[in-house]
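Wed. Picked up where I left off yesterday with GTP cyclohydrolase 1 type 2 homolog. The coffee machine is broken again, so keeping this brief.
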Amino acid sequence: MTAEHRTPSATSPVAARENDDAPTLADVVEAADRLWPFGTQESWDASELVAGRPGAPVRRILVAVDPVSSVVEEAIAVGADLLLVHHPLMLGGESSIAADRYKGRLIHDLIENRIGLLACHTNADSAAAGVSEVLIRACGVGASRPIQPLEDDPATGLGRIGPLDAPVTLETLAARLAAVVPPTAQGVRVAGPRDREIRTVAVCGGAGGSLLETVAATEADVYVTADLRHHPVSEAREAAMHAGGGLCLIDLSHAASEWLWVPVGAAALAEELREAGFGTEVLVSTRRTDPWDFHVPSPQPEPQDRWE
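Structure written out below (tokens, as returned):
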């Protein structure tokens, strides 16, 4: 990540406290609901308040992608009253939060340090200024629309699609994204001709494989997402390389594709609370939470047409 794209560190608040009137945890949840309505989350999701007393004061919030050990440690270190994460901690049908299990240990660490936990997942994905909106802006798209709009609000929904402000090659777009997302072991993977002209971009922050067929039926030249599987990518690449068209693919790390939203979401929450008369500090986590630690390069620096 280049210096010009760094976000404020955990010791540099997005919004400095302007007064001593702290919101309650319930006030913060209501503010989050105004920004990223919880009612828009997918049916399988668990975007909600996970831990914390609704009446507890919240003077400092830490925003992150993942509720993992390093982030919880950071929340304790900076004296946060609330940890707001994108990915829910309790999404697997857990029946125990005993501290001898890692999820239970995290919950205990938060509660014992009087830190609430709030998850804003697919509701933040679908929001008008949510995860996918931030990602497509990073691509160079000014005006976009949802790929899968919500029935009651077609301006919101999963994914985004729109024209680039100026056409670029596929390689240039991939390099543009590599320069702004956090560095990961995976890097940025691309399927399609390097010099393919890209005019229209579709994106879905996080795992967007379920929208691949929908995107392929649109005018998009490239689909930017994460966690794509071998067979769908292989089929799309065949069309892009050999059929004189087709959909190119850019596969980012899951966490990296969503991290761009964190500072934007933190700033939006700080402003929402400020307008409500509160001066809560909203901090951006500095911890890398992509689960892959390193990769070993292949002996050949560039992919070859033959395996020999």
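Quick read: The two ends are 36 Å apart (CA to CA).
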